[in-house]
Amino acid sequence: MRLNSTKLLLVGAFALMASLSFAQVVEPSDSTKVEQEEGNVSLGETLIIGKGVIDLADDRKTPIAATTITKEVIEQKVGSNDITQAFVNTPSIYVAGQAGGFGDSRVITRGFDQSNTAFLLNGQPINGMEDGKVYWSNWSGMSDIANAVQIQRGLGSSKLAISSVGGTYNFVTKATDKKEGGFFSAGIANDDFYKTTLAYNTGLINNKFGVSVMMTHWQGNGYNDGTKGQGQNYFISLGYKPSEKHTLNLLFTGAPQWHDQNYSKSLADLLKYGRKYNNNTGYLNGDLFNERRNYYHKPIANLNWDWDISDKTSLSTVLYASWGRGGGTGTATTTDKAYPTTSPGRDENGLKKIQEMYDKQLAAGGRSGYGIRQSVNNHQWYGVVSNLNHKITDELSFNVGFDLRTYKGEHFQQLSNLMGGDYMYETRNKRYPKGYKVSDTFSTNPWKALSDFTNNALQKWSYDYSERINYGGMFAQLEYAKDNITAFFQGSASNQSNQRWDYFNYDAANEKSKKITNWGYNLKGGASYTIADNHKVFANAGYYSRQPFHDNLFMNYKNDINTNAENEKILGLEFGYKFKSRNFWANLNAYYTTWKNRVDGGSVEVTERNKNDFPGAIVGSYLNFIKRGFEQEHKGLELEMSYKPLRTLELKGYASLGDWRYKGSTVQDYYNENQDLIKSTVQNLNKLKVGDAAQTQFGLGLAYELLKGLSVDADYRYNGNLYGKNVLGVNDDTVNNESGNLKLPSYNIMDAGVTWNYKLTNRNRLTLRFNVNNVFNHIYISESTTSYQSDYKEADNYKGINVNNQVYFGYGRTWNASVKITI
Q1: What stretches of 456-605 adopt beta strand conformation (E)?
Q2: The pTM is what?
């Protein structure tokens, strides 16, 4: 579908649905109530979640582009997937990476990846302090504990100095419930997936104290070959209300898990060995063995305190801590040049000959040339966010607060499996130039990962370093509202210090890097005007000066300081129109974002087809790359609407049109998994399209209650104008076309489900749910991590795509079913 026809679709759909509703215009009701799972009650029915710290759209009178995903939608749509599955029918949201394995999905918002989108849990920032990334495998229990998720595209309403370039996702969790009760649920899905959850609330005891607990277990074999996984989720919430003015809530949650991983691979291999082929696997002792496994346990503690100081003043504070333990496995090969590097070959089915290698090393005894290592990423993170709200007059309110964080990360490799041998030999550690034997191995059990890791420098492999990041921010907001006009202004300033210790590449006297300190700030403002009871227009603008991520301040995975690192500069403009009547609402938004001093990264596999591009790299290994110094420009339109012609029927629709392009050139550095620089290039990206997300989207959905308690729903979505993630720059400075982009075929997906609710007693209810995703089993490429054009090395093509490209196929038809008993 071409761009002009999609614009006509947007305008036509909006005009049609608006015309259907104007005959029934009434004064709008409160439009953004976040509803709790039981009984359609608002979050006010829970004891406390830190209401003054969580910035939801309805807390601000000046509108923003926001979509609220309720608990009911999360329960219905997620099934055996990550919580990101609940976001797929939202404008300007693209979900990728599902084919990687449980918890490996990614969310791209308005063309910006997760490291440049803010994620908050009850007001607590959860983006990684080092690189801004979010790994959903660490949050596999989010679909169980989330009461609602509000997606704020663009500037958002958060007062914190956070990375909300693409948007802000506010996860509002369950809290201590005021009512006694609980539930049990069980679900099954394709590929031997099953999940059970048990929850109970004491209700408020003496109107002061209450406890809510929940436990979950899940496991499955995964859609693609060799992607099985298993995990648990625990949640404890303790609520205490000592007086009418004070409310406290202590939350403790975690989601230990392990899952085997699938990476992008050449389209040629997928066509040869099948769409579910996983080139990380081979057989060992009769079972399919995956060299790549992620395992992690990240307990979270969160204490919220709300204090109603007076009828005009309130204080809300959240204290939080997290302790991450775990990492990911991969191959370890000898680093001693006198000892030949060994690696399993592949059989006729494309599987690694792991058993053959294991038997060979077992028979030889002693030193292994091939083993499995763990890249350990441990951290401790502590923080506090506090916000004081004061109502100066009936029209003017003021907020002021602070955001403090301290983070220590520890990164090293240790061995997980010697693959038949007795030890491996490490020769790269500069402190031990004669080398040493590494013989200890460690489990990938996420529960054991809390304490089962080495503290012995002579048992660490490949690298060993740590970092300390300290962050302090202040923020303030003024908001004015009178009659039909509202306006707000926000400002924040922050200071961040970064320091690194390297115990592998330096002696003890030089292990500590110089401390780097950077200031950053945010400025946001906006206004809205209510034209009539049902019509509102608004405009927002913001400018960010964001400190570089820690990983971009230090070069070459050493203490070398990147003197070219500068604050990233982001300018955002947004305009919107909102309409609401009794049975119809619509939101239309336009946005423009520029982003300078960009730094980005990714990974690519070294294959027989591209090995000449990376001299010295080992075929079958993965290279990480960093590209820096370029600019992006994103602009687009978004439409979201809902029409309810009958009490039992709701129709929904959305569309988004984006035009996202690079500007300027980039320096791109490639590193192997031992963090050695392999290659550096300069590429011109000017006017090339930004990849990794569909720039043209639209969707339709319906929910219909056939009989009392029995309902069906279906969602259709189209994704087009989709490009490969890692754009190949060109050396022609006059380029003004898309020759450096890989354009992927557009695709359509239909999901459908049925729900049956049955009231067992006055208090007890039975709920059955059945989903089918990708009903018509549409075969499509969901993403590509490379952008080789069709003439690259005289390659064959698949639907116009060079088969040398590293891609993921999306899931085919899948299903899930669940039963829930509420008491």
Answers
A1: 461-482, 485-502, 516-532, 535-546, 554-555, 560-561, 568-580, 584-605
A2: 0.88
